Amino acid sequence: MMSFSPVPPPVNGPVGPLERGLAVLRELTRLAAHEGRTTVRPGDLVRGTGLARSVVDRVVGTLEQLGYITLDGRDIGLAVRLMELGNAYLAASGLPAALGPFAERLADGLDESVSVAVPDGVGVRFVVQVTRRRTMSLAFRIGDLLPAERCSPGALFAAEWSGADWAAWHARRAEDPLDTAFPAVPPRHRPASGEAFEARVKEAARDGWAIDDQLIEPGLVAVSVPVRDASGRIVCAVNVVSHTSRHDVDSLRAAVLGPLGAELPAMEAALTARRPRLAASVASAVSGASAVSGASAVSAVSVASGTGDSGTALGEDPARMAKRELGAGFLQSLARGLAVLRALGGAAPGGAAPGGAAPGGALGPGQGEARAVEDAARGASGATGSMTYGLVGAGPGGGRGGGMTLSAVAEATGLARATARRSLLTLVELGYAEADGRTFRPLPRVLELGYAPLAELGFTDIAQPHMRELVRTVHESASLAVLDGGDIRYIARVPTVRIMSVNITIGTRFPAYATSMGRVLLAGLDADARAAHLAGVRPEPLTRHTVTGAAELARVVERAAAEGHALVDQELEEGLRSLAVPVRDARGRVVAALNVATHAGRGTADSARGELLPALRATAARIEADLATASAHHALGAGERVGA
Known about the structure:
Keywords: DNA-binding, Transcription, Transcription regulation. This protein is 42% helix and 16% strand.
């Protein structure tokens, strides 16, 4: 994917494997964004990057070990865990936490989609999105890059461009006059004059707002206002989008400029709110350095905490350990460079690793901080020292936090200072980070590494690759279900290939009381909700094994809550045995249940539990980790929504 940040073209810099790894990730993203390809072959990457096949194979192998891509035979795809790189930028910028609550309130009040965009070179990249769910949906994906001249935030940002920026813009338009390098917008039919954009830039500088009258595509209109830091420089723009069936550009401007102007002082106060980073926030960033796969050398969870089954102590270099285990095919420099990039994101509130569950399960990722920032901006009490990372100030990089020093990055990743420095300089050279004195910060360009296509994934999209792996492991069918009234409803399923197998389709409903998934989901309710649900159930004997007594049913649900799983043996249907575990969201709430169903004749209930439960729990943990990563700074994409 092309990027038009004002940086020198890539050269054989200090860390060549990191540069080549980023090139492969960009090409994977380009193919996903431009062509809608969920998987590609190694040959596609060779052609797209110009790298030798042997180099591509080593890069792909390393990225797969890191958990950033998926391999299914020769098919290569983007993995959800790759979003942790983009999450590092979003966390460091502080924009989702600071402005997300304002965007939500504006979207509710205006009943229109609201987004926040930042400058990325001479383009515009979206970092916050709150949509209105309508048949005619208007939304940009987080991470989408748009030409500055084809959206209203671009005119605002260009008002502060330097001569070099304008020269880069003219060069980009000469190279790509039809905007074919921007998958988020329809390509032009013919080149457009630059004079119209220059005139709109002057108008935006004079008026303090900008409009998009169907510049992106026919029917789409938008109004944007700048959000400035304490020095008066534009950090980002808040953008309200509508459709010509609801507004023309003049009526939209009349409807939204007042509410936007009323919120601007508080938004700008939120941007200038700064808090010190605690030492714990640096330490927690190290989890990104670990190599994770089915047989990875280091567990991300254990590295993040400094303990765990691997015995890894905080400050060790996971890439070196992985190299020892995985051999010459593992590109240690690539793993270290990506660990450095992720470490630049610091930590989430309370010392949790970015993308992890919120402490205590009270609030989702970033929500506690967002609420405190908003309260502080409005002068409310209680928004004090518990927050662990600073928010944005001024800067061309889409908002600046406090940044991280070389020493802090080295400590966070367990790398030697010289090693961390080489990775940082490479990231700066390639436009993924900036240096400001002694500190380094990630830049919006990090979001080009798979973030936009991965941000579209819904709950079942995230779960199904892990379910397929589970089925390959246990050779039984796997299903995912949610609670729907008194029933469970199947939302995803991966069948196994057997002469005798369980045949259930998506959308199938069964009574919750007689199923393993139903009991796990009931166990996940709070005590009052669980009691109310069980009080309304009138169990019927579906087989001679079905539990129908109210007291006994309450006991088996309590046991499921205590043990973290439920096994149902021939209560729904003779010969059918199933085992289920809960799937939790980033707040720790049970939002779905995962099960494996088998025939009762294949062994005893205890043997089924012993053989299947470890794999079920491991699969649920991987799904939960991906859910936390994907929802760290925004709601999940389209598809089945759970836990709302």
